[in-house]
Write a structure and sequence with these properties.
Elements lengths: L1 E5 L5 H12 L5 E9 L18 H27 L4 E7 L1 H8 L5 E5 L14 H9 L3 E5 L18
Parallel strand pairs: 1-2, 1-4, 2-3, 4-5
Length: 161
């Protein structure tokens, strides 16, 4: 069985636990994928203004390194929680495209709800996650990363007209 887990802040522990349950005691090839979303253009003109003249490039490089370090730490923690070896992939780019591509050839893609998790419904899924769900080339296991809202969180039906 081939499983891809989308490792994201706030959702990865529940996704790893679900994948571990899915594997059980059988053999599995697991890939942990973390995507650092690239900025869409140059930094805001105000970025670095408080750092001093000529430091914008250095500050951008430092932020990029901090982002990379945080992502690598998250991947390591996910593998530790998984409890067995997995392939770790750190990507940069458009998350929805890279995760969808990573799921090609997998049996399952495990990912977490990343929107409004206070109530049931479509708003509990963010735009990147929605794209991945709609385009995944395999089965998708969608996880509530924390407590599942009760049925009372569903809005009432529209009034009769």
């Amino acid at each position: 069985m081939k499983i891809v887990i989308w490792v994201r802040e706030g959702t990865w522990p529940a996704c790893v636990d679900a994948a571990r349950d899915l594997v059980g005691s059988g053999p599995a090839e697991v890939t942990l994928v973390c995507v650092r979303e690239e900025a869409s253009g140059p930094p805001d003109p105000g970025f670095g203004s408080l750092i001093g003249r000529g430091r914008r490039r250095k500050a951008t490089e430092e932020l990029d390194q901090l982002s990379r370090d945080a992502a690598e730490t998250m991947l390591r923690r996910a593998q530790e929680r998984l409890g067995f070896d997995a392939t770790m992939r750190l990507e940069s780019g458009f998350p929805e495209r890279l995760v969808t591509a990573a799921a090609d050839g997998a049996d399952y893609l495990v990912l977490g709800r990343d929107g409004d998790r206070r109530r049931l419904g479509p708003n509990s899924i963010g735009k990147h996650t929605r794209f991945v769900i709609d385009h995944a080339p395999c089965r998708v296991l969608l996880i509530w990363p924390d407590r599942v809202p009760d049925l009372g969180s569903i809005p009432p039906p529209p009034p009769d007209r």
